[in-house]
Design brief:
alpha+beta; 3 domains; 21% strand; 8 helices; binds zinc ion; flat
Length: 255
């Protein structure tokens, strides 16, 4: 797969190491950028391996810290290490996948990012880039470049969105830990409360007002937050397009 080769963690690690060695403040700043790219390569490579199964809301999140936080809501193995043992003919071979806990990843990613900006006026006198800290992060992130990508497949389930009709993806792990879920269709993103969860599936509810379709008279649920100027939707039954238009009535008496 071509995309895998595009995410080259070793390339960014080596760049960071040589920039740290030079030690100037300018180089240290670029080293932070390289380490952020290493984290991005690690996260994107993992997501790419399941690009067809994962909710679009995870795949389309460009910030790795946010994508990882979302991913761990669905997949409890998303930030875990794995070891695969190959046993046979009295011999054992071990393959490791080194991962990083999402909380650590988010902390390091954000801390590295803080060095990519100019200091705010209130910090200008005390601002410094801590070389030792960057070396520590570099050492910690190095293990992400070692080993092989290993994935434990989990079961993704879907339920249709009542608003747009597109499937909303969820997992058992998600249901256990979350009380709300948003439709992953970017044109919709309606948030539902998860009201019931059992073996037969999941039941969702959103705070809605119902409008009657002008053409087929079907009831169309519109979440309260979408009852706003310019919101477009269509009837799921007959496909008629609708749009809210706000008309402002002035209270000033006409001359
Ligand atoms: Zn939807
Ligand atoms: Zn209709």
């Amino acid at each position: 797969m071509k995309e895998f080769q595009r995410y080259d963690k070793n390339y960014h690690l080596n760049n960071a190491r040589s920039l740290i060695e030079s030690g100037e403040i300018r180089s240290l700043r670029y080293a932070c950028l390289e380490l952020r790219m290493l984290i991005e390569a690690h996260v994107y490579q993992r997501l790419l391996a399941e690009i067809d199964e994962l909710p679009k809301s995870i795949i389309n999140t460009w910030q790795p810290s946010k994508a990882v936080r979302l991913h761990t809501q669905f997949d409890k193995y998303a930030d875990m290490d794995f070891q695969l043992r190959l046993e046979g003919a009295g011999d054992t071979l071990e393959v490791n996948y080194n991962n990083i806990k999402s909380s650590d990843l988010i902390k390091i990613y954000n801390s590295l990012g803080s060095y990519l900006h100019l200091p705010m006026p209130k910090d200008i006198e005390t601002f410094a880039i801590d070389k030792e800290k960057i070396i520590k992060w570099c050492d910690k992130l190095q293990r992400l470049t070692e080993g092989n990508l290993i994935i434990l497949k989990i079961n993704y389930i879907t339920v249709d969105c009542m608003q747009c009709g597109k499937p909303i993806i969820y997992t058992d792990h998600y249901l256990k830990n979350q009380s709300k879920i948003a439709c992953q269709n970017e044109q919709c993103e309606i948030e539902y409360s998860i009201t019931n969860r059992d073996n037969s599936g999941v039941q969702l509810s959103a705070d809605c007002n119902h409008f009657s379709c002008h053409v087929c008279k079907a009831q169309i649920p519109i979440p309260l937050k979408n009852i706003t100027n310019g919101h477009r939707f269509n009837c799921l039954d007959c496909g008629t397009d609708f749009e809210f238009k706000l008309i402002v009535h002035s209270n000033t008496p006409r001359p």
